[in-house]
Amino acid sequence: MEVKKPHIKSIPYEEFKDNETLEQIAQELHEGGVNVVTGSLDQLINWGRSNSLWSLTFATSCCGIEFMSVGCARYDFARFGFEVTRNSPRQADLIMCAGTITNKMAPVFKRLYDEMAEPKYIIAIGGCAISGGPFKASYHVVRGINEIVPVDVYVPGCPPRPEAILYGMMQLQRKIKIEKFFGGANKKEKTPIIVNGVPEDFDPKKDIDD
User: pTM for this one?
Assistant: First the structure.
């Protein structure tokens, strides 16, 4: 199928990627009293998505209490667009895994993740979700949800402070804002972000075992 060249009245096709021509046109419109915003469609979509993340209500233990406090008036994660929590994975953008995941619960957790639509994200909150926490040596607890699903942001603590959870949310927003959906491959950052100054190459399972 032949792709037709875009026809823009004020911009010749040869100058379509000429920034000076675009700046000149925008300046002329500004002088005429017209408000012009220039940018890419990727930036617009990522701005909207990063500020309207709906999380799945998924709290299994004490870290869930911290997650609840983040939604209360004192911290109020509605400022970041996270206030809408969903009970259905088909309406959620991310899972904030706050608490312990047992081996019996792991298949259900993986099924919820699989039922979510792309793009989807995971935030591991607390020591139990990151490495098993105080139950690390037990027979029934998963030693890190990264064994089940890919994790985007780690928020360490037992449990972490609400400020740490908010900071983890902000780091996820940073990752979403650099994604690319048009004009090339998706540039989504694959390396998980760990808050509180922990190195990015930190492997929770390997380094804690050592």
Answer: 0.68
